[in-house]
Design goal:
This protein has 396 residues and is α/β, with parallel strands linked by helices. Helices cover 38% and strands 22% of the residues.
Amino acid sequence: MKRASLLAAAAFLASSMIMPGFAPAHAAEPLKIGFISTLSGPGAALGKDLLDGFNLGIEQSGGMLGGRTVELVTDDDQLKPDVGRQLAERLIQRDKVDLIAGVVFSNVMMAVAKPIFDSKTFMLSLNAGPSALAGNRCSPYFFNVAWQNDQSHEAMGKHVSDKGYKRVYLMAPNYPAGKDALTGFKRYYTGGEVIGEIYTQINQPDYAAELAQLRAAKPDAVYIFYPGGMGVNFIKQYAQAGLKAEVPLFGPSFSFDQTILPAVGEAALGVFNTGFWSPDMPNAQNQKFVKAFEAKYSRPPSPFAAQAYDGALLLASALTKTGGSVKDEAKFRSAMRAADFESVRGPFAFNTNHYPIQNFYLREVIKNDQGRITNRLVGTVFARHMDAYHDQCKMK
């Protein structure tokens, strides 16, 4: 286990930041956050961006949350659900964390959910947004500051439909987020036919057989969801097979972001993708975030970093309202639901199931004036978009 303590200002500064009615002794106790992320293997870049974005958000909040220093207990789930569950149990039972944050992959999230919710520990997902936790298995202890899995794919389903593509081929890894992805795409793809729907092994490195099947199907367009190393391998192999010149490729932002583009290179140029955020969004909070992230980590941020940064700012806003405490569950939950922070993505609110209501944008992979392969904001596909499962959640 790796432990990272974020150092705060001197004790007198901590005392000066305490909310009225809270004793100075309370602020001297660190806020202990368990952080579960994928920090090894093909998905490690995603997990690292979550961790770095979250740390930057805490730093930008003055190094404290709600007037308390932060002790971050960081663990690597290795993209293994059983490991994730063991880590969650250890963080709760042995480390006595105040809350848990992180989690990249939805199969890990579904494994950690039960021990976290059974212990009445608050969980802030910085990425994974499985449909099960948005609907009838929603929990008052769960908040997602990123998106519900289907949403970015819904936006591209609408775009591809609007463009008039009649024969579409779909591909994703065989795990909860992959299934949510293609379900979301199909929900808004109308007026055409899905002629292939292929689920591959998670972390599969070679797609030669699948690409041969794709070529034989002769689709008008291809939609993929492959995050991390899976995306690097698939996009490069798609271009090397000569398919990019024959069949337009589309995807969500997670398959064409800064965790993937440096390794993919020009094979991704010209691809349109959809997501809740783009690095060139003009709002002041986003410009501040992008500049600070590049200065601190010497690389451009991805959506994973952006949503984790927002997660830290969300916690800062909620804990400021509660004087740094999560012990009054109703008060902390109410403060989280208020989402009283300035998001890098623009408009942000929580639905009744504690998933975001937010905009979704169309982006294009380009090479900018500095020669960097990145994304350019093209337009808005959905404004203040709600997930498809919120009405199944019994929370009000």
